[in-house]
Amino acid sequence: MFVANDNASLDTQKVTQDFVLEIQSHNNHQLQGSLQFDYLHQHFECTFNISASDIKLKSVFPFKGLVTAAPTIPSYDITQTGYLTNNDVISKKGNQQIVWLILDIIHLYNLSRLKLSSIKEVYDEVFLVAQKNDPSLTYGKINPHQTINEQYTELLKKKLKRKHKHDYTTAIGLLASVQNLILQ
Question: Does residue 49 share a domain with residue 85?
Fold first, then answer.
């Protein structure tokens, strides 16, 4: 994988880790802390919040405000496939989702540095559709958490996937990130 850190394990064999995760607080079956990884000689830092049903990463360096989130697991399914185990340890599925979220940040980083005008172009198309249906919307400030706006978040996700060949984990995080990039 192209996101890597090399650390020596106790038995002196090399083990490749994709990221460094530091837990800063642990309460009510939630872990909060920081996550760090390197990509193309660029150091990235994120904050994270992990519960049994949800994971959220938010970039704090080099691009403040890139947001990624794993799909929320329904409550009836948490005990068998949650992101945290019963002992509040990150599960294998949680670890895999963190890697996917890191890839989302990497793709957004690459798009913002190489094709920012392309992101803006796709967002503009989606905003025009949204504004036709709701003239009160403000550019760069579509609330992704309002049910009425869910169709626009999904439209943005589909258009960016079609154009740039990466399927972002959640549409809500993608909309929030794209709007943060445009407003910055």
Answer: yes
